[in-house]
Design goal:
Helix 6 crosses helix 19 (about 365-375), helix 15 runs antiparallel to helix 16 and helix 17 packs across helix 18. The chain is built from 20 helices and no strands. It starts with a helix and ends with a helix. The radius of gyration is 22 Å and the shape is globular. By secondary structure, the protein is mainly α. Helix content is about 80%, strand content about 0%. It has helices at about 5-25, 30-50, 50-65, 70-100, 110-120, 120-135, 140-145, 150-155, 160-175, 180-205, 210-220, 225-230, 235-255, 260-280, 280-295, 300-315, 315-335, 340-355, 365-375, 390-420.
Length: about 425
């Protein structure tokens, strides 16, 4: 009997958790997991990251060149970016509302606050320094950073995905503007490269359950102190509640603006969600997201190849919502009462910061420092959430890729409707 991929991944997750719980009951268990099991999970993640840049290059160039003209590209691009901005603003707003209602920061005791500040002071300082480097740049530095000076240097770092996307779009537009007879060979090359990358994804998926098992085992073995987790439980539940509400928002968007039912949508995207949950990386999950959207949700390759790579870089709904909740949580923990104007500033800053977040684990923490600084919240409060950041990163990454898939479905429906509209 053939077992569906998402069931294999779930089995791998459960097996990894049970394996870690069993081994950590022995004194040598933690070291054994770190030395002999965790490396296999790291190798699995590295293989996914390995094909992220080639996938973006091949799929975007193919997707853009298949549009035939720049007017189709501008229309699709405008719809895509517009939808991404709308969902991001909704996510930040939801985060602020539930944080104001629940007020999770008021549940932090003074002793727990001091313990967390001391435990993670070193890690907090490193994040603050990274954020300060970004804050000292000019107002247009983010635009400058999009344009690479060297494609190969940009492609060597998954944190430079925007630069890779810029080159791919630039290259694809040039292909459209040239006569077809001059670009036939180049286009065939990228079509073939795209097919090869997709086959590599299929091969990686064959070992996915084992990679997921190794990742979950290492996560369980490295879980923070249970007392700290209890103290931060309300904060975690607040973030998770907000992320769950975003799932409902996506369901409404799918119901209203596409022909796909919400049930079919979530069933089709489930393997990618499970991958995002275990890897905490939108970039590493991108190959699986594209496969699910194209094969399960029947979105055209042109739309998926254009919308999803961009979304993996600029659309971070889960990260934006988390930043809003975290900012209010830290402010409440320090006894600060944020005005409406400051909270509106958080919406704007978190929306813009999410665009600059790299699609890799932990990047949202650096951008959160900028959000805190804008709102006048002590950056040292970052230590209050470090203990539970990794498990919450798993949840918010799941929301990030779900938002990408929802937008892809809506854009595909819009394109299909336009193509079927009869001429007057």
């Amino acid at each position: 009997m053939k077992i569906a991929l998402h069931w294999k991944i779930i089995i791998g997750m459960v097996a990894g958790a049970l394996l870690a719980l069993g081994l950590t009951s022995f004194e040598w268990g933690g070291a054994f997991i770190a030395d002999w099991i965790k490396p296999w999970g790291t190798i699995f993640i590295n293989t996914l990251k390995l094909i992220a840049v080639p996938l973006i290059l091949a799929s975007l160039i193919k997707g853009v060149s298949d549009l035939k003209d720049t007017s189709s590209l501008s229309k699709m691009g405008g719809i895509t970016i517009g939808l991404y901005l709308i969902t991001t603003v909704l996510a930040v707003s939801i985060g602020l509302v539930i944080a104001n209602v629940i007020q999770p920061g008021n549940f932090i005791s003074e002793s727990t606050r001091m313990e967390l500040l001391q435990s993670f002071s070193g890690e907090v300082q490193s994040k603050i320094e990274l954020a300060q480097q970004q804050q000292t740049t000019g107002p247009l530095q983010s635009l400058i950073d999009i344009v690479p000076t060297n494609l190969f240097a940009a492609a060597s770092d998954n944190g430079n995905m925007l630069q890779v996307i810029f080159f791919a779009l630039f290259f694809g537009i040039a292909l459209i503007l040239l006569p077809e007879e001059k670009t036939k060979t180049v286009k065939s090359f990228f079509d073939g490269l795209n097919d090869i990358i997709l086959k590599m994804i299929d091969l990686i998926m064959m070992v996915a359950p084992w990679g997921v098992m190794a990742l979950v085992a290492s996560l369980v073995a490295e879980a923070p102190n249970s007392d700290l987790l209890t103290a931060l439980g309300i904060y975690s539940l607040t973030v998770i509640l907000g992320l769950f509400l975003m799932l409902l928002v996506y369901g409404v968007i799918i119901k209203v603006f596409s022909n796909t039912s919400p049930v079919d949508f979530y069933k089709g995207i489930l393997p990618a969600q499970l991958f995002a949950f275990t890897t905490s990386s939108s970039a590493a999950t991108l190959p699986v997201t594209m496969e699910c959207v194209e094969e399960n949700l029947k979105v055209s390759k042109e739309v998926a190849g254009f919308v999803l790579p961009i979304g993996a870089t600029v659309n971070m709904d889960g990260t934006s919502l988390y930043q809003a909740v975290a900012a209010l949580f830290i402010a409440q923990a320090f006894g600060m009462d944020l005005s409406l104007s400051i909270q509106l500033g958080i919406i704007a800053t978190a929306t813009l910061a999410s665009i600059g977040s790299a699609a890799v684990p932990g990047a949202g923490m650096v951008m959160l420092v900028i959000v805190l600084a804008q709102a006048g919240i002590p950056e040292a409060g970052l230590a209050l959430i470090f203990a539970v950041d990794r498990p919450l990163d798993m949840f918010r990454t799941t929301i990030n890729i779900t938002g990408d898939a929802a937008v892809a479905c809506v854009v595909d429906q819009h394109i299909q409707t336009k193509n079927k509209t009869p001429l007057p």
